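Thread: Putative ATP synthase F0, A subunit, structure

OP (GT): Posting the sequence first so everyone is looking at the same thing. Length is 398 residues per the record. Can we get the structure tokens written out before standup tomorrow? I want them in the notebook alongside the other entries.
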Amino acid sequence: MKKLDEKNSQLLKVILISILVFFAFWYIENVKNGLTVFIAVIQPFLIGFMLAFIINLPMNFFERKVYSKIFKTEKTKKLVPVFSLISSWILFILGIVIFLNVLIPRISKAVTALIERFPLFLDDLIDLLNKNKLTKNFADDAQKYINSVDWNNVLVQVKDYFVGEAGNIFDKTTSIINSVSSTIITIAAATIFSVFVLINKKDLKILANRIIYSLFKRSTADEINKVASLSYSSFASYINSKALSSLILGILVFVGMLILKIPFAAMAAILVAIADFIPYVGPLIATVIMMILIFIESPFKSLVFLIFLLIAQQVQGSIIYPALAGKTIGLPSIWVIVSIAIGGSLFGIVGMLVSIPIASILYTLMNEKMDKTLAKKEISENEIKELSEKVHYKKEEK
């Protein structure tokens, strides 16, 4: 009777989940709109939590390695988290300022150089095509097309796009001001919330445990705590190892490009380091962008840059990152690709960034569950390997 009840309970769960999934897909647009509104409302708090998580990484370092050794007395120990938080925020803001001061001027310079050299590049390309009999007709057509383009009209169209067909600048200015104001308010609220979270993180942790252990039985609460701890360690180790690995890659690219006398060294180093946070897709995008910019300057140096960057990325991917990360992520390559694809398709760039640590958490939990189930069934890992190596053929009986 007990087994029957368990079966009925499992069946009921499956039916309920199936109904929920069905209605979710049936009303997918309404669900999507509802989620969009909900996320928009809680956006400052989400950003605040993300900021708190990022700032907490250097804050932990300052607490353990720096200020705990300076403030040793009972009276001064209270200053440890305060000074750690201030130092972490200074470091964070300093990083953003350096990034903007280095990258923005380089982008401006690169775009200016691209605009100035592009017509000359087109002329050189057409001359090159004219020298070849097979491509001469194509070159003539391209030249006619370029000459036929009314560049003044193109400029007017671009201007109309930004100003508007009716030239109503007031509406667009108002829209921009509203957008900027909304962004500033969101960032300010998120920053204040993150500071509040970091200052009260110990009290918030105690409060969270009080809620969890009061709502759930001990074993379930322990499991929730375990998942929370695993989630934090997975995200923290991924961000730490990836940030350091990307920084080293950026330095390698910068030094290498200076030695090889390839232009846009600083811009390439920053772009490659940032793009490296998005596995597979990020480095590809950074490579294509920099190759186009360098190609306008010098096609040969563009090829040299490609070869050099591929070597640098191989060194980083095969030696530097594994040495830093070790087995902290513990996710097979195939699941990395799958997680990036799913995360990117659902949530874009943000999805790609968080997909790997989330997949790592799910993969770890799934493996633990399978290990427990196999242990109950008394099936060893060696038996699984032996069964996997065997191929069974069943002959059809006549």
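GT: Both are above now. Quick notes for whoever picks this up: The chain has 13 helices and no strands. Residues 330-378 form one domain.
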